[in-house]
Amino acid sequence: MFYLERDELSQKGFQPIQNAFYNLSSDQEVSIFNERGDISFNTKEVKHDWSESIEKIKEEGLLNFRENDTYYHGLFYKDNQGDFVVLVKATNPLIQSQKKRLISILAISFCVAMLILIFLTSHLSKLAYKPVRNIIKQVNNLNLNKSPLQLSYKSSKDELEELFQAFNNLLIEIESSYEQQKNFVDFSSHELKTPLASIINQLEISLQRDRNNEDYKETSERVLQDAQQLKSILENLLTLSNLNKNVQLKEQIRIDEIIWEIIEKLAPAYSEERFNVELAISPKDFNLLQFKGNETLLYMALFNIIENAAKFSKSEIVEIQLSKNKNRLQLQVSDHGIGISKQDLKHINQPFYRGQNTTNFQGNGLGMSIALKIFQLHQIEYSITSELKNYTKIQLEFPQ
Description:
Elements: H1 11-22, E1 29-33, E2 39-42, H2 51-60, E3 62-67, E4 70-79, E5 82-91, H3 93-128, H4 130-140, H5 159-208, H6 213-241, H7 243-246, E6 251-254, H8 255-266, E7 275-280, E8 290-293, H9 295-311, E9 318-325, E10 328-335, H10 342-345, H11 367-377, E11 381-387, E12 391-397
Helix pairs in contact: 5-6, 8-9, 9-11
C-alpha cells in the first residue's frame, strides 16, 4: 500500500501507512516484483533469483517458506497498475534469542555434565581399582624370606579374582623354587665342604711329622677317596645344571638294552643274580620298548634308581619288570630294603636330601633328584611308593 496505493490515497489517509512502513524492523526487507518478474521496489538490493518462488506465489496467492534461519512471506497483489508479487524477508529475533539461549544452556549443561562425569569416573575408578592397589601394596611388601608368599583378597567372582588366584599360584611356585634353590646352595656348600675339610685335615696331619710309607699310603688313599667324592659331587652338579640343554639331543633307543647294560655295569659290585628282569611284553608289542630321548641321560637316571635299589636292599633281590599298560611302556623297579619314610618321601626330588635311615650308606643325595628331573624332562610319569624296613617301588610310565 505504501508503494502501490500512494497515488490513490489522500495525504491524510496515506500518513498512517507511511508511518507504519518506516517503523518496520531493519531486519525486514521488502521487495515488489511486477508481472515480468522485475523488481519495481525494494528496501535493499536483491541478489537472489526469485523467479521460481514468484511463480509459486502467483499460483497459490500466498506462500510462506524459509531458508536456514530466514523466513519469507509472499503475496500475490492485484492492482489497477498491474499484478505484483510482494516478498518480505525477515529473521525472527525471538527464535534467534531462544536459539542462542538454548546453545548457552547446552554448553553449560555439557560442562557441568563433564565435571560430574569426571568426578564420578574418578570416584568409581578408585573403588574399582581398590583391590588392585591393595594387591600392589602387598606385592611391594613381599619378602622371599618370609613364608607363606600369598596375597589376601576378597572374593569378587570376576576376572580380578582369577588374576589374583593365578598370581598366588605363581607365588607358590616361586616360593617352592626359591626354597629348593636355597636348600640346594646350603646342601651343596655343606657337601663340598666335607670332603675338602677331610682332604685338608689328612694332609695337615701327614705334614706334622715324618711317617713311614704305610702311613703315607693310607693317607693318600683317604685323600684320593675324598677327592673322588668331591669329583662325583661336582660332576652331578654340572649334570643337574645342564639337564635342560642336553635333553634336546634325542635319539631312538631301546629301554630293555639300557637296563641290561646297567646290570652288566653293576655286576662287579652286585652279583647279576640279585637282579630279576621280567619282560612281560609280547613280541608284537616290542615297538613299545623303542623310545626317543637322550640315551646318556636316560642311562644315568635308570642307573641311579637300579643302583639305589641294589644298594639299599643289601642282599635282597631287585625286581625289574617291563610291561604294557594302556598301550604304553611301564617300567617297575622294586626292592625289599630299608624303605623310605613318608616324611623323607616328600623331599625325594630335593638335591642333596638324604633320608634319616641312609647315614650308613655312601652317597650325596644327588642321584635320585637328577633321575627324577631327567624323567620329568622326558615327560616320563613316575610314582614312588615305599614302606620303612619293607620295600620301595618306583614305577615309570613312558609316553607313547
